[in-house]
Every structure is written in C-alpha cells, then in structure tokens.
C-alpha cells in the first residue's frame, strides 16, 4: 500500500498544469514562432519523459526496478523538491506575463524579463520543471524516473538552444550581457 503522501505529488502536478492552462490565455500575440520540426525536437522527448513519470505500464520490468530503497525519507525529499520546483517555475511564468509561450516565439512588444526568478537563472521555468521531475523520480525511486529525467533534460537543453538564438536575434547585446551575468539553469554556476 502506498503512503498517503504519495498522492501529493500528482496533485501538485495537476494544480501546476491547471495554472499553466489558465495563464496561457493571457499571452500576447505571436510575432515570430519556431517551425513545427523545431518544436517536435523538444516536445517529443518531453512527452516521453512525462509519459514515463505518469504511467508505470509504459516502463516494463527493467525500468520499474528500484534504484532507491523504499522509504519515507525519499518520498518527503521528492515531494519537497516537486513543490519547490513547481513553485519556482510558476513564479517565473507569472513574471513573464504575456511574453510566455509554450513554443519558442517572439511576441508582439516582447520585453526581456530580468527580474524575479530571472535574476537567478535565465530559464527558471525549465530549472523549476527539472527540479520537480527530479523530485518525482526520487519519490518514486524507480529507474523509469531517472530515464524520464534524462528525456526531459534533453528536451530542455534543445529548447534552450533554440530560445537563446531567438532572444539573441531579438535583443542583441542586451541579451549577450544577460548571458554573461546570469547562468542558464543552475544558480551560481556561470
């Protein structure tokens, strides 16, 4: 029987997803967007990671094996990381306001956000999501969680490269300075 705390992680992800859907209604109109092939290059690994985290049926016996022993310590730690990661990404999403998009885009009247979580890392939504995925993997303690983390990490690195190129084209030297001053994903790692 699973510990009742194990229900908190799916609930946190569901609340975060609901917020994401509601907030997306307030995005500015798009001026320029990435191609469908570009989008697929990061959406496919992201979907694989999400599917592995969400369903044990997809993983099979090897990925369902444990890499961590069962225990409340891992469940508590994982839950705390999920909560912290999702809150950080939601705060970043809120700070972006209408500039946010699920695809790599440049919005009409796009502005470079450098405040709030964007003072700490250039990609706080991705950093928070990665922390939450890692927390989910630790709470589950199964290899599928680590494979999911690797897939999401690959998706994030791909999307970051595309996004950085768009931001450099849009903001030029201002973005180059931002890149020099603020790390991409991990605070204090320049």
What does this structure look like?
There is one protein chain. With 190 residues, this protein is mainly α. It has one domain: Four Helix Bundle (Hemerythrin (Met), subunit A), CATH 1.20.120.1630. It is 63% helix and 4% strand. A two-stranded antiparallel ribbon has the order 1-2. Helix 2 (36-54) packs antiparallel against helix 6 and helix 6 (143-171) runs antiparallel to helix 7. The N and C termini lie far apart (44 Å).
Concise summary:
This protein is mainly alpha-helical and 190 residues long. The protein is 63% helix and 4% strand.
Share of helical residues: 55-70%
Q: Could you tell me the radius of gyration in angstroms?
A: 17 Å
How are the strands of the largest sheet arranged?
1-2
The CATH architecture term is: Up-down Bundle
Report the total helices: 7
User: Which oligomeric state applies?
Assistant: single chain
Mean pLDDT: 93
Q: Based on helices, strands and strand pairing, what is the structural class?
A: mainly alpha
Kindly identify the CATH topology: Four Helix Bundle (Hemerythrin (Met), subunit A)
- Shape field: elongated
Could you give a short account of the major beta sheet? Answer: 2 strands, antiparallel
Poorly predicted runs: none
């Amino acid at each position: 029987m699973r510990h009742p705390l194990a229900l908190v992680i799916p609930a946190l992800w569901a609340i975060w997803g609901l917020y994401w859907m509601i907030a997306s209604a307030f995005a500015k109109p798009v001026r320029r967007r990435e191609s469908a092939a570009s989008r697929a290059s990061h959406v496919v690994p992201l979907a694989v990671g999400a599917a592995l985290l969400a369903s044990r049926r997809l993983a099979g016996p090897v990925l369902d094996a444990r890499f961590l022993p069962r225990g409340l310590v891992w469940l508590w730690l994982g839950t705390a990381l999920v909560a912290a990661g999702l809150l950080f990404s939601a705060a970043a999403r809120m700070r972006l306001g209408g500039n946010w998009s699920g695809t790599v885009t440049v919005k009409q009247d796009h502005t470079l956000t450098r405040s709030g979580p964007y003072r700490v890392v250039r990609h706080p939504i991705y950093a928070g999501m990665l922390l939450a995925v890692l927390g989910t993997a630790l709470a589950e303690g199964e290899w599928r969680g680590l494979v999911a983390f690797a897939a999401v990490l690959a998706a994030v690195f791909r999307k970051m490269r595309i996004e950085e190129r768009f931001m450099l084209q849009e903001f030029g030297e201002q973005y180059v300075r931002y890149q020099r001053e603020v790390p991409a994903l991990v605070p204090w790692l320049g």
